């Protein structure tokens, strides 16, 4: 049953959709999900009570299936009452959009480019509004947490994988999917968390063995994706689509966020000018000139370390920055 104009207006308000993206938002919702949002409004409802309400409103013949489907598609979020019992509440468009791009990519890919650009413009503005203040605090020297906090060397990434062996999930990168990146691999994010409202709990992602996760990470590193993260996830970023790096650029946080624990040292005499570093550098810090020789521009370097891991002659080495964490304190590193 089609929505009335008033119902459509209420739906878009409840789901926190910007006025100019209403048509796109409706394409990301089923008719049953629209009715579910209107039924629940902003209430947090126990699982059993929600099943009763859905049945009473005759929205679905099998309420439990609708709840599970809407949760899987990030139309609903899980919540817990004071006793830990399962409840649900509606998500919002900011939560639904990345899941649509990640896990229903073929549908999303059909959107016109100008609509995808507008969706990303809106999404990034909201994202920066939530997290940008914490990056600014880091710039001022304040200790505060921001996700994707630190660039990781391959050994550091492997150590994280080993720590979470048995709970490693691969999911598509929301940044790359939302921006519809086609020239780089998209199915590259590693999650370790499987609790409420995580992709794995919603039924998404591929569970990986430790050895396969290491093999993939090494391959992504070789292809120019940067390992970045902390104890709940490893993001395999590129320099253009990665939201945290876009935020860092906007805030002027190079060298502060994401943190790099290493300085990049280039030995021009050892370099054979193969160009591997220039091919994978996300910041144009390494370039190959018209004379076919490599040059290094440290002022452009963010310290992601992938160049060192892929130098065949160990002409690029790492040395710990002052104040770096324990993992970086062991002496200079080369691969």
From TrEMBL:
Molecular functions per Gene Ontology: 4 iron, 4 sulfur cluster binding; metal ion binding
Pfam families: Fer4_21
Keywords recorded for this protein, A-Z: 4Fe-4S, Iron, Iron-sulfur, Metal-binding
Family annotation (InterPro entries): 4Fe4S_Fe-S-bd, 4Fe4S_Fe_S_CS, Fe-S_Ferredoxin
Entry keyword 4Fe-4S: yes
Domain 4Fe-4S ferredoxin-type: 262-291, 292-321
The protein's name in its UniProt record: 4Fe-4S ferredoxin-type domain-containing protein
